[in-house]
Design a protein that fits this description.
This protein is α/β, with parallel strands linked by helices. Among the domains are: about 80 residues, no CATH class; about 190 residues, 3-Layer(aba) Sandwich (Alpha/beta knot), CATH 3.40.1280.30. The protein contains 15 helices and 8 strands. Strands 3-2-1-5-4-6 form a 6-stranded parallel β-sheet. Strands 7-8 form a two-stranded antiparallel ribbon. α9 links the parallel β2 and β3.
């Protein structure tokens, strides 16, 4: 009983210390266990090496660590070289395509169709952000193109629907009557216009378009000039008393000539006008020529039916003042400008008019002689309205008084 009591006293005494002693002992046992497992694993992988005893083991059986290290290093280098060579042998275009497909699968903004040139430009991009920006640019461009195509298709469908609706509204008899009427009308109109044009080529007043300004314009400006020339020829052909149009200084196979033939096609040889490589100075006497230019200091007062008016056929987008005036002075020709300041309240800006506007003004002056009617063809954006007639008449009276005195 006394021994039992002693044991219980010892247990009760050491019980508070078990919290600290037991983990320490377990940790030591665990470390010993890990060390034994590691030693067994290493011993299984590495062959056992006996203690260095020169007497018991021959030198051929010794482990050569230096050779082992060199072989391991050579194997690692071969692996690196093989990976580099394989990366070099890869096709960069294929890698770029994989990159684009990956971005497409991720839901990024990538175009559906990419050409070979675009792939090369993507491949030449320096950074990844540059590639992303270029892909986004191609995506937006393709999106705009699709939208424009859809708009064109919708407009074509609307036109087709309107045409079908009109055809459904009219009966077959109406169709035949309208077709016959239009056929006879077009035939008579063409005959009348052809007759007037042929008569103008024989007896009409000449109007010259100077085509010697090809080097002063860009290709886009040349296109605008040709469009205005075509419109001017149309207004002249439809007029009651047309001019005899001359295209002077028109060199064969020049930019002017190629574009005119392209626009008119087979009708170019049937036009009732004169196209020549000669200059207007060679065709008409200098005394009868008046060069119309906005830079001239001489203001036109009346339209003269016995003069040959010349218009420089070019579009001045770059604002080159004095080009036609300098040419007229070189040739010692008389120059005039339209009296825009006398009749119109002009806004700030140049007073250059288009070729078709000049044609309509000259046709109206030729037929009526009324400046107010002729200057109605000046665009309204360039002026605020006509001056009062009394003011203009008062200016004329004052000038006449000064001339008399």
């Amino acid at each position: 009983i006394s021994a039992f009591l002693k044991m219980s006293v010892c247990v009760n005494f050491f019980r508070p210390f078990t919290r600290f002693l037991v983990p320490f002992t377990l940790h030591r046992k665990r470390n010993n266990l890990y060390s034994t497992i590691l030693q067994r694993y290493i011993s299984s992988k590495i062959p056992a090496v006996t203690s260095p005893n020169n007497e018991s083991t021959p030198p051929s059986e010794e482990l050569e660590l230096d050779k082992w290290k060199t072989t391991m290093k050579s194997s690692v280098q071969e692996e690196c070289v093989s990976t580099v060579s394989s990366s070099k042998d890869e096709d960069p275009l294929a890698a770029t395509r994989e990159f684009i497909e990956m971005w497409r699968l991720l839901g990024k903004e990538v175009p559906e169709h990419i050409t070979e040139e675009e792939l090369k430009t993507i491949m030449e991009c320096v950074s990844k952000t540059a590639k992303k920006k270029y892909l986004k640019y191609l995506y937006v461009k393709e999106k705009h193109k699709k939208a424009n195509q859809i708009k064109k298709e919708m407009k074509a469908a609307a036109r087709e629907a309107a045409k079908n609706a009109k055809l459904l509204e009219t009966t077959e008899e109406d169709k035949q009557q309208n077709f016959l009427f239009l056929r006879l009308w077009d035939r008579n109109i063409n005959i009348a216009m052809g007759w007037k044009g042929a008569q103008a080529m024989q007896f009409g007043q000449p109007l010259v378009f100077d085509m010697a300004y090809e080097n002063y314009m860009q290709p886009k400006e040349l296109q605008y000039t040709i469009s205005q020339l075509l419109e001017s020829e149309g207004w002249n052909r439809r007029n009651v008393d047309p001019f005899h149009i001359y295209f002077c200084n028109l060199k064969t196979d020049s930019a002017y000539h190629r574009e005119l033939v392209k626009r008119y096609e087979e009708k170019w040889d049937k036009l009732l006008l004169t196209a020549t490589e000669k200059s207007h100075v060679d065709l008409f006497p200098k005394d009868s020529i008046i060069y119309l230019t906005a830079d001239s200091p001489n203001v036109m007062t009346t339209f003269r039916h016995d003069k040959v008016y010349i218009i420089g056929s070019f579009v001045d987008k770059k604002m080159q003042p004095g080009t036609s005036l300098a040419k007229a002075k070189r040739l010692k020709l008389a120059t005039e400008c339209l009296p825009l300041d006398k009749y119109l309240q002009w806004n700030t800006g140049n007073k250059n008019l288009t070729l078709d506007q000049m044609m309509r003004i000259l046709l109206c002056l030729k037929n009526t002689g009324n400046w107010e009617e002729a200057l109605k063809f000046v665009p309204q954006r360039k002026h605020t309205g006509f001056l009062e007639i009394s003011q203009h008449s008062q200016e004329l009276i004052n000038r006449l008084k000064k001339a008399k005195t």
